[in-house]
Amino acid sequence: MPLSSYGVLVGTLNRFQREDQNNFGSWYHGKLYVNAPVGQYECAVDVSTPTGIKVQYRVVQGLDTTLLAPILALAPGWHLLASTSSSGALDYIRSPLLHPRRGCLTVVYNALIEAINQLLQRLSELWTDSSGDNALDAMESLLTVGGVVCVFGAPYTSGRGVHDIHLNQGDPPGQFQHLDGIWQDGGTIIQRPDGSWAAFLNKFETQSLSTDNNGLPI
Predict the structure, then answer these.
(1) How far is CA 64 from CA 36, 94, 102, in A?
(2) Nearest CA to 53 among 202, 211, 191?
(3) What are phi and psi of 17, to 5 degrees?
């Protein structure tokens, strides 16, 4: 079965904080503290584990705001999202928002441009292994205190916060696969000072990016 609750927090960044790498329990997180009308939320982004399973990350710049429209129409605060392609939910594999196409400037041969576009898209979709701080450096470079952030994931069961801010499908058999589903991925979408939007995405190395309609690895 998929996540029992999935949605997005829309708010403004109060501060960004790194956990102590020598004292972080089961997971190493970067934490975004986000202001919303009912109060401040803590959003925990996984960037490392003590198990030896790598975390990987990817940054997508220049998001198409027309594809982001369902989320930009939301008021600040926490919103439940249906796990569908039209709700504004994220899916690392299926969301056109997360696979921007590169347009040509002025080039004559369309076939050549298409080949270049495909190559650039593949390069842009490479995932980087996280050492912990390199992922947090990449995330922090996108953040601005007071800037708008949209954090996708599941709500804390106690207190105000968001977790599962990562790929939520493609898990191998084990303790997490029962939570897999499509159109329920976590992630952080950030408005940049110039008005553009970027996404910080993260996943565990063991998760597949080839899944069926139930979010299970193919």
Answers:
(1) 24, 15, 11
(2) 202
(3) -140, 140
What distance in Å separates the CA atoms of residue 94 and residue 115, rounded to the nearest whole number? 21
pLDDT tens string 28-62: 778 999 999 999 999 999 887 777 788 999 999 99
Q: Which two tokens stand for residue 34?
A: 């986000």
pLDDT at residue 133, as a whole number:
83
Largest alpha-carbon pair distance within the chain?
58
Encode the chain in three state secondary structure. CCCCCCEEEEEEEEEEEECCCCCCCCCEEEEEEEEECCEEEEEEEEEECCCCCCEEEEEECCCCCCCCHHHHCCCCEEEECCCCCCCCCECCCCCHHHCCCCCCCCCCCHHHHHHHHHHHHHHHCCCEECCCHHHHHHHHCCCCCCCEEEEEEEECCCCCEEECCCCCCCCCCCCCHHHCCCCCECEEEEECCCCCEEEEEEEECCCCCCECCCCCEC
Residue type, 180: D
Angle at 162 (CA atoms; ends 33, 206), nearest 5 degrees: 115
